[in-house]
Amino acid sequence: MLEAADVEVLQLDLKASADVNWAVLQSAHGYQVATRTDVAPVANGAQWLVGPDLVQRCELLLAVCSAGAGYDVIDVEACTGAGIAVCNNSGPGAEAVAEHALGLMLDLAKKITAADRVMRAGPVGDRLALRGSQLLGKTLGVVGLGAIGGRLVQLCAPFGMEVLVFDPYIDDANARGRGVTLVGLDELVERSDFIQVTCPLTAETRGLFGRRQFAAMKPSAYFITTARGPVHDEAALYDALVSGGIAGAGLDVFHEEPPRQDNPLLRLDNVVATPHVAGITVEAARDIAVATAMQWQAIFAGQMPPRLLNPEVWPRYCDRFHDILGIRPTARDTATVE
Fold it and tell me: Which segments constitute the D-isomer specific 2-hydroxyacid dehydrogenase NAD-binding domain (predicted)?
C-alpha cells in the first residue's frame, strides 16, 4: 500500500514544449485527464487527451480519470487493451448539472431570456408576444437516467410532470421504482414537451439526435442538453428551430467548445445557451476535488477504484500494478464516494 505522502502530483503546463509534457506523462502512473476545453486553445492540444498514441507512449500508466461524469476524452478501448483502468467522476457534480438543466427548461418555458432581450433592445410592445408556458402537468423526456438524469427527475417532481425515460441500461423495475416510465427513443421524442439529454458521449450515443428525431418532436416542444455536443446534429437542430419544427433549445454543450461566435445557433432568439458551465459551481468544484483525491488515494492504495468504467481490465491491471509498483490490488472497494 502506498501512503499519501508517497504520491507526487505533477501538473502539465500546456504552454510548455511538448517534450517537457511528454517527459512528465511518461513517468506517471496515473493521469487526471485534461478536458477538451483546456486543450482547445493549445496547438496540437488533442494529443493530451487519452488516445492510442498517448497510451502507447506512456508505458507506466496504470489509471486515467476524467474530471467529471463525461469520459469522451478517454479512448476506453485503447486503455483496456493496454491494461489501464479508466475512471470518471460521476456523482459529485450531478446536483449542479441537474439544477442547470432545470434552469434551462424554466427559462425556455417562461421566456425569461427572450423577455430580457426584448427589454434591453427598446420599449416593450405587445407583452402577449412573450407569453410563456408552465411546467405543471407537462411531459418530460429524459435521455440517460444516471446520476444527473435521476436527480433531474427528483427536482421536477413538484411540477407533477409525466416522466418518460430512454436508457437501455436500466430495466422496467428500476424505472418504476423511480416513478418514471421506460420507453423507446421514438416514443419519447414524439410525446415529450421537454427533452433533456443527460447521457454520456459514447459510440452508441454519438449522433443520437438527428433530423428524424427533431422532425418527430412536437412543434411546441423544447430540446435541452447538458450532455456532449456530438450527441446531437447541430445542423439538424438549427433547421428544426428556424422552421418552427420545435419551439426552442437550451444548450450547454456544442460540437466545438468554446463555441465560435458565428455559430448559427447563437443567432436564434429561441435558443438559450451557456458555454459548458452546467457543472461549474462553488459546491461542485469542492465536491469533485475531494472525490478526485479520494479516488486516486484508493487507486494507489491498491483498492478497486470507486468509479471504474472498464471492470474487464481488472485482472491485467492487477498484474501490471504488481509489476510496476510491487503490490497487488484487491477487489475490495473501501473508498466508495457517494
Answer: 102-278
CA-to-CA distance for 57 and 84, rounded, in angstroms? Answer: 13
In the block, cell 496547438 appears at: 43
State what percent of residues in the chain have pLDDT above 90: 81
Helix or strand (DSSP H, E) at 20: helix 18-26
- Helix/strand/coil percentages in the chain, nearest 5: 45, 10, 45
- Checking if the pLDDT of 334 tops 50, the result is no
Question: Which one, of 177, 178, 195, lies nearest residue 186 by Cα?
Answer: 195
Handedness of CA 57, 61, 67, 68 (dihedral sign): positive
- One-letter amino acid for residue 90 of the chain: S
Distance CA 36, CA 77 (A): 19
pLDDT at 317 over 60: yes
Over residues 283-311, the mean pLDDT reads 92
Antiparallel, parallel or unpaired: β 194-197 and 181-182 = unpaired
- Out of 63-77, 153-167, 215-229, 263-277, least confident range: 63-77
Q: What H or E segment, with its residue span, contains residue 166?
A: strand 162-166
Instruction: Report which of residues 331 and 187 the model is more confident about.
Output: 187
- ∠ Cα 281 285 291 (to 5°): 140
Cβ partners under 8 Å of residue 257, min gap 6:
36, 37, 40, 229, 275, 276
Residue 233 makes CB contacts below 8 A (sequence gap 6+) with 207, 209, 210, 211, 214
Among the ranges given (41-45, 71-75, 234-238, 334-338), the one the predictor scored with the smallest mean pLDDT: 334-338
CB 219 within 8 A of CB 247: yes
No. of helices (H) and no. of strands (E), the chain? 13, 10
Give me the phi and psi of 75, to 5 degrees please: -85, 95
